Amino acid sequence: MQRIGVFVCWCGTNIAGTVDVKAVAEALKNEPGVIVSTDYQYMCSQSGQQMIKDAIAEHKLTGIVVCSCSPRMHETTFRKTAASAGINPYMVEIANIREQCSWVHKDMPIGTEKAIILGKAAVAKVNLNAPLTPGESPVTKRALVIGGGIAGIQTALDIADAGFPVDIVEKKPTIGGKMAQLDKTFPTLDCAACILTPKMVDVAQNDKIRIFSYSEVTDVKGFVGNFDVTIRKHARYVKEDVCTGCGACIEKCPMKKVPNEFNLGMDNRTAIYIPFAQATPKVATIDPNYCNMLKNGKCGLCAKVCAAGAIDYTQKDEFIEEKYGAIVVATGFNPISMEKFDEYAYSQSKDVITSLEFERLTNAAGPTAGKLLRPSDGKHPHTIVFVQCVGSRCEACAEKGKEYCSKICCMYTAKHAMLTRDKYPDTDVYVFYIDVRTPGKNFDEFYRRAVEEYGVHYIKGMVGKVTPEGDKLKVQASDLLLNKQLHIDADLVVLAAAIEPDKSARPLATLLTASMDTNDFFTEAHPKLRPVESPTAGVFLSGACQGPKDIPETVSQAGAAASKVIGLLAKDKLTGNPCVAHSDEMMCNGCSSCERVCPYGAITYNDKEFRMPDRTTLIRRVASVNPAVCQGCGACTVACPSGAMDLHGFASSQIMAEVDAICK
Amino acid sequence: MSSKNERLRDEILKRSGVNPKKCMRCGKCSATCPAYDEMEYHPHQFVSMVENGDIEPLINSKGIYRCLSCFACVDRCPRGVEPAKLVEAVRLEVIRKQGANHLTADGVEAFLDGEIPQQAIVSALRKYSK
Ligand SMILES: Cc1cc2nc3c(=O)[nH]c(=O)nc-3n(C[C@H](O)[C@H](O)[C@H](O)COP(=O)(O)OP(=O)(O)OC[C@H]3O[C@@H](n4cnc5c(N)ncnc54)[C@H](O)[C@@H]3O)c2cc1C
Ligand code: SF4
Ligand code: SF4
Ligand code: SF4
Ligand code: SF4
Predict the structure, then answer these.
(1) What is the pLDDT of residues A525-558, one digit of tens each?
(2) Contacts B45 to A, Cβ<8 Å
(3) For chain B, what are the domain ranges?
(4) Torsions phi, psi for A148 (to 5 deg)
(5) Predicted ipTM?
(6) In Å, what is the CA distance from A17 to each residue of A8, A113, A476?
(7) Among A299, A558, A591, B95, which is disulfide-ready with A155 (CB 3.0 to 4.6 Å)?
(8) Spelled out in words, what is the top-level CATH class assigned to the domain B3-99?
(9) pLDDT per residue as tens digits for the range A54-100
C-alpha cells in the first residue's frame, strides 16, 4: 500500500472561487492510502513546495496527489519537488481541478463535488503507480536545414557559428530562394542582392556548412537527436567539384529557347545554365528536358568547350545517407497561380503580371536589364494599376484563393509604386486596396511616403475586371470613398498574388511526422510560447513555411530556430520519456495490429524462442517497442487484441482504477 | 433600428439567404457590376444598407429594376456574400405586394435561350413584366 499525501491548491480565487478546497481536502482524507490531506493558497510557490517536502519527510510518503491546475502547467514543478525530497518523480499525479473544473463551473457545490471525484481518481491511480526511470539517448551533433532561402541560410549560418556542422538541402540548383529574385527591399529600399549575396558567400566559405543543391530529402527515420535521413542528389550532368562556373558552355549551347524560371519565364536561357551570376554553388546544370545530347544523343558541344572537363552526360542521381540530431524546415512559399483569376486577364495579356514578375522587370539582372518595359511590346508604361489582395482574404472560393491575409503584399506594393514614381515621374500609379495593412517598424511611414511624397494614387476599392483592348488594358474598378465606378486605361496591371507554402511541404511534413494547418503551413508547438518548434521533437521551423513573413521576420525566426537547435546539439545525451509502451511477450501473438497504428514507427517484431512445458521449443514472432522512438501516445495499447501491449505510467489497470473511482 | 426596419431586414435576409456580416467592404462587386451607373445604390451598398435595416430607400430605388441579374457580383465576391440575391429579395418585396406577376405562363418561353441561369430568368421575367 502506498502512503499518499494530497495537496489541494486554491490558486488564489481561480480554484477557491468555485471549489470549496477545504471540503475537498477533508473528503480525500478517507481515500485508501491517503495519510495526509491539506490545502494551501499557492501550491506552486516556494512555500507550497516546501509544505510538500516537509510532509514527505514527516509522514514517510511514497506518493503525491496535487489537486491544482493542468499538468501542462506545473507537473514538472511538482515532480522536481518530489524528487528533491527523495520520491521518484513518477509517483506524483496531478488532479486538474482548475481548467477542467473551477474554470468551467459557476456553482460551488457542483465544482466541489467534481473536484473531489477528480482527486479520488488521482489517488486511485497513484496507488498503482510504480517508480519509473527515463532512458537516455545520444545526440548526433549535426543539423539538417531543408530549404536554402534566406530562412535556411540564416539558420545554417547561426548553427555553424556555434560550432556545429550543418547541411543545407535545396531543391533548386542554387540557394537564395525568393529573396534572390527581389530587386529592392522594404522598408529601407536596399538592394536585395547586396544584402543577400554576402550571406550566400558566407555559406559557401563556411567549412562547417555543406550545400546539397538540386537535392531533396526522400526519407527520414529515427527521432530527436538521432535522425537517419536519405538525400537524393539529382544528376546535374556537371561534376560539381570540377566545374569552375566560367560559363563557356552556356555561350555555346545551341538550345537557347528554354523558358528561364529565374525570370519567371519572361526571357529564355540555354539548356545548360547557371540561374544567376551569384548562384551558390556557382556550378552549371544541364536541364535534361531540353538538352539535345541527353534527349537524342546529338550535340555534346558543352563537353567540348568545357576546359575543366566537368560535363558528364552519364551522371546518375545519387543517394546520400546521413545522421542528424536536429532538422529545420525552411521550405518557404510561392505566389499562387493566377490562372483562375480570369477577370484580371492574366492569361490573356502579357501586360498583366504578378508582383514577383514586376520585381524581375525592375531588376538590373532581369529580362529588361532593369528598365520598366511592357512585356508585350517593350514600351514604357505610363499608367500602371496595382491590385492588392488578389486571392488573399478570399473565403468564398477555396479552389481559387486563400482565406488568410498574405501579409507582405501591402508593403511590397507600396514599394513597387514608390520606386516606379521615383524612377519614372511621368507614370501614373494607382493602387487599389481593401485595407492597407502596414504594422511593423517604419512600415506605415513607408506607405505614407508613397502617398504623400511620391503621389501614388491609393484608392479604397477593388478592380472588378481587366479587358485587353488594342494596346490598352481597360480596368473597371470601384472607388468606395467617392462612391464611383472607375474606368482606367492602363498600360500595365500588377497583381499582388496571395502566397502559399511550397507544394513539396505536405509530403515533407508526412516524412517528418510534423503537423500542418489546413493551408499547409507548418504548425508550431505553441502559437505564442513555442513559435519555432514543431510539435515533433527535434523538428524546427524557419521562415515563410510556417506562415506569411517578410524578410525581417524571417531572419528573426531563423535565428530563433538556430538557437533552439544549438540548445539541443549542445547536449550529449537526451533524457527520454519513461511513459512508453512495452509488450508482454507471453501474451503477444505477433498479429502486427500495433505496428500498423504506431504513428512513430516505434514497433518492430522479433522471432523469439520460447521453451514449452514439455521441453520442446517454439519460435514465435513477438512485438518489441523501441523506447527512444515511442512517444507514449498509447494507440498500440488500444489496438492490441490480446492485451499484451501496455503503457508505463498509464497502464490499463491504472486507467481502469481511475474510471472506477469516478463511477463509484 | 426601428422594429419595422428590423422586421424588414430579417425578412430580406431570410428570403435571400445572405449573411451581410461576411462582407469585408472590398467593393469588388461594385467594381464588377455592369449596371453600376444605372443603380443609385450599388451592390456593396445593398449589402451594408440591408445589414443596417435601411431598406425603404432600396425598395423605392429604380436600381432594383436595372440590375441585370448577371450574377457577376456573386461570382467575384471573395467572401461569398452574393449581393445579387439581396437585390432580388428587395425586388420581391415590391412585387409580392403588387399581387400576381404581370406575365402569363404562355409568355415565358419567348424569353428562354437555354444559357441563362434559372434564377436570372425568373428575376428577369419579374422586371420586364412591368
Ligand atoms: C513580390 C515580392 C516582394 C517582396 N518584397 C519584400 C521586401 O521588399 N522586403 C521584405 O522584407 N520581404 C519581401 N518579400 C518577402 C520575402 O520574399 C520572404 O520574406 C522571404 O523570401 C522568405 O524566405 P524563406 O527562406 O522563408 O522562403 P523562400 O525565399 O521561398 O525560400 C525557400 C527555399 O526552400 C527551397 N525549397 C522549397 N521546398 C523545398 C524542399 N522540399 N526541399 C528542398 N528545398 C526546398 C526553395 O527552392 C527556396 O530556395 C517579398 C515577397 C514577394 C513575393
Ligand atoms: S549537350 Fe546539351 S547542354 Fe550541352 S551544349 Fe548541347 S544541348 Fe546544350
Ligand atoms: S498584406 Fe495587404 S495586400 Fe496582402 S493580403 Fe493582406 S491586406 Fe491584402
Ligand atoms: S447581378 Fe446586378 S448588382 Fe450584381 S453585378 Fe449584375 S447587375 Fe450588378
Ligand atoms: S464583393 Fe463581397 S465582400 Fe466585397 S464589398 Fe461586395 S459583397 Fe462585400
Answers:
(1) 999 999 999 989 999 999 999 999 999 999 999 9
(2) 483
(3) 3-99, 101-130
(4) -115, 40
(5) 0.81
(6) 13, 14, 61
(7) A558
(8) mainly alpha
(9) 999 999 999 999 999 999 899 999 999 999 999 999 999 999 999 99
C-alpha cell at A270: 540555354
Domain boundary among A500, A532, A549: A500
B31 with A476: Cβ contact below 8 A: yes
For residue B77, the chain A residues in CB contact (below 8 A) are 396
Question: How far, in Å, from the CA of B32 to the mean position of ligand 3?
Answer: 20
Please indicate, yes or no, whether residues A367 and A496 belong to a single structural domain of this protein.
yes
Of B24, B32, B81, the CB nearest to A464: B32
Question: Which residue, judged by its Cα, is nearest atom 41 of ligand 1?
Answer: A504
Pocket of ligand 2 contains residue A272 by CB under 6 Å: yes
Q: Cis omega (within 30 of 0) on the bond before A134? A: no
**CATH code of the domain in which A165 resides:** 3.50.50.60
| R_g over Cα of chain B | 14
Same structural domain, A345 and A324: no
CA of A247 to the centre of ligand 2 (A): 12
β-pair type (A428-433, A383-390): parallel
Q: Flag whether A576 is in a domain.
A: no
Q: pTM for the complete prediction?
A: 0.87
Of A190, A176, A351, residue with least CA distance to A261: A176
The range of the structural domain enclosing residue A255 comes to 248-305
Contacts of A397 in chain B (CB under 8 A): 78, 80
**From B33, which residue of chain A is nearest by alpha-carbon distance?**
A464
For chain A, the average pLDDT equals 96
Residues A552 and A456 in one domain: no
